[in-house]
Amino acid sequence: MNWNQLISAKRWGYEHREQNEHFDARSEFQRDYDRLIFSSPFRRLQNKTQVFPLPGVVFVHNRLTHSLEVASVGRSLGRLVYNLLKKKHPNIDQEAPFLQEVGNIISAACLSHDLGNPAFGHSGEAAISTFFTDGKGLKYQEMVSKEQWADLTHFEGNANALRILTHAFNGKDPKGFALTYTSLASIVKYPCSAIDGHVKGSHHRKKYGFFDSEKGGFEQIARELGIAKDPHNPKGYMRHPLVYLVEAADDICYNIIDLEDAHHLKILSYKEVEDLLLPLCAGEDLRARLDSLADTASKVSLLRAKAINTLINGCAQLFVDREADFLEGTFDKALMDALSPEIVAHMKLISDISVQRIYNAPTVVQIEIAGFKVMNALLEEFVPAYLKTNKSMFDKKVVAMMPEQFHSERDDTYSKIRAVLDYVSGMTDVYAVDLYRKIKGISIASLD
DSSP of 265-324, one letter per residue? Predict the structure, then answer.
């Protein structure tokens, strides 16, 4: 793989448009960022759970604020990587003119990395999958292919993001978001289909990155960008190198910022957070500054900023040092897992404490359980109603609740199920709960 081909301004749906190397007010990749930030799917992230329940009396991060912060870290990572690569290869601007845009590419990809996540976080993903493995959706197994069934039984938010960005929804622009090929490729962490994913010991096949419905689209992107084929899976690909930077930005944010939220909610004391973050604040003696601050939230903010800065610098330097491995497709772990042994061990400690104290906190578990029940109940109503040929009056009423944009023009079972999943997975936590209550008769819409 080579940078000149990997970073392309070719745009989905506008493949024959000439690429512009002479930037106007905005580059093509800045346009990607702007299209995402003004979009409805992105705005809906403000009412999707990150970790802690929404809404709350104390501000915590939701999917939208998380994505904005990941984009900020991603932009810094990208700019730093470009500056380091330019020192390493003085003529790189001539060899790969779009490489200077890597910060904008990474920030755009970071904005969209959680776009496909359903309501209630990973509990929502599990609910969709379980509906087909152990619920009423199991009866549809014989009506779809093995590849399609693997999609349905392992719902993946990463793959759903690619669908949202490229699928021609009814009444919407048939070109989807019309993002650049490089921005699209940069969000596909696991470039294989569901049936080829979930391979232990393989970082780029730990899950999967595109549904069967988007397989052809991703293959088109991969061919254009010259993404290497996977030598161990002839139907799959290696990662686009920039995926590692998007992944690193996400890893940095959730590992560090979840501690900040836990402190706000009094799950972790200030002393516990300081003990976890201070070792990551390399190169500075922060004791005097910390002691000068009376507000513990301000102290945590300072620690958070310094820790993130350490991790950004470490990941960027590692990426440039191992550039050849990324271009050859032989780097098979996350950047954060390849930093110094001291940092890796400390991040493992943070992860273990987060699992024990944060992700298993009663309020978090309660929303996961409730979300699981809500999502499963919605699927039990919408999937059978939408698939029935001879619909009852009730079925017709249920289907009428689905906005026209989510209806499938294709008549096969997989496409119809995928249409329902498009609708349900796009719901916010608040909307899903409200719809659940109305369908179950728990609450009734006002007639005023």
Answer: TTSS-HHHHHHHHGGGSTT---HHHHHT---HHHHHHHHHHHHHHHHHHHHHHHHHHTHH
Query: Where does residue 128 rank: exposed (0-12), middle (13-18), buried (19+ CB within 10 A)?
Result: buried
Q: Is residue 400 part of a domain?
A: yes
DSSP character at residue 238 = P
Closest residue by Cα to residue 314 from 76, 6, 92, 106: 76
Cis before 55 (ω within 30): yes
The three-state secondary structure class of 368 is helix
- Of 207, 383, 322, 59, nearest to 391 by C-alpha is 383
Instruction: Indicate whether this model's pTM tops 0.85.
Output: yes
> pLDDT per residue over 82-129, tens digit each?
999 999 999 999 989 999 999 999 999 999 998 999 988 888 889 999
The answer to whether 193 and 146 have CB atoms below 8 angstroms apart is no
Does a structural domain hold residue 147? no
What distance in Å separates the CA atoms of residue 211 and residue 300, rounded to the nearest whole number?
40
How far, CA to CA in Å, does 327 sit from each of 74, 152, 181, 238, 242? 19, 32, 17, 10, 10
Residues β-bridged to residue 62: 49
Domain total in the chain: 1
Instruction: List pLDDT tens digits, range 235-251.
Output: 899 999 999 999 999 99
Q: Does any domain span residue 345?
A: no
Tokens 């596909």 sit on residue: 188
Which structural domain, as residue segments, surrounds residue 410? 364-435
Q: Which of 259, 126, 113, 132 is nearest to 179 (CA)?
A: 113
Residue 13's nearest CA partner among 158, 172, 186 is 172
Specify the long-range contacts of residues 269-274, CB closer than 8 Å, at least 24 apart. Answer: 270/296, 270/299, 270/300, 272/353, 273/300, 273/303, 274/299, 274/300, 274/303
* Nearest to 270, CA basis, from 294, 289, 253, 250: 294
Residue written as token pair 């610098």: 313
Neighbours of 426 (CB within 10 A): 22
Position 346 in a domain = no
Cβ count within 10 A of residue 444: 8
Tell me the C-alpha distance between 35 and 422, whole Å. 20
